[in-house]
Design goal:
Distance between the termini: 48 Å
Number of strands: 11
Strand content: 35-45%
Shape: globular
Largest sheet: 5 strands, antiparallel
Order of helices and strands: EHEEEEEHEEEEEH
Strand order of the largest sheet: 6-5-4-8-7
Number of helices: 3
Length: about 130
Amino acid sequence: VTFAPAIVSNKESFLNRPILENNYTFIKSKGGYERVNFSNILYLKASGAYTNIITEKRSFVISANLSHVVDQMGSSKIVRCHRSYAINIDHIVFFDDTTVSLKKGYNQIDLSMSMGFRSNVINKLQRLKSN
């Protein structure tokens, strides 16, 4: 696992402690660890035993499955929307029954949203309701 809380007291806590108290994490990059704010993460994509973390400026590959990465992040803003995707709800610009759209700069990224994970997303979003 390549996550790290901001302050590491030992290797065991470095590898296994959820990152609940911070709004950022450190991700292994170029022989060291790079700080990544959760607010900059657009989405995470499963790729077998690996997870791709896509941010506003770049992407990272982590040697851990998507469920493990989402659990380790512990952020209420990162939500599963599909078996292959987790999204940052702060970047959602549109969603319907099968798709969630995220804003990346001037572009829009459309990702699949499965029925099984749809309620995860909807329950996290603040919506106006009709009478």
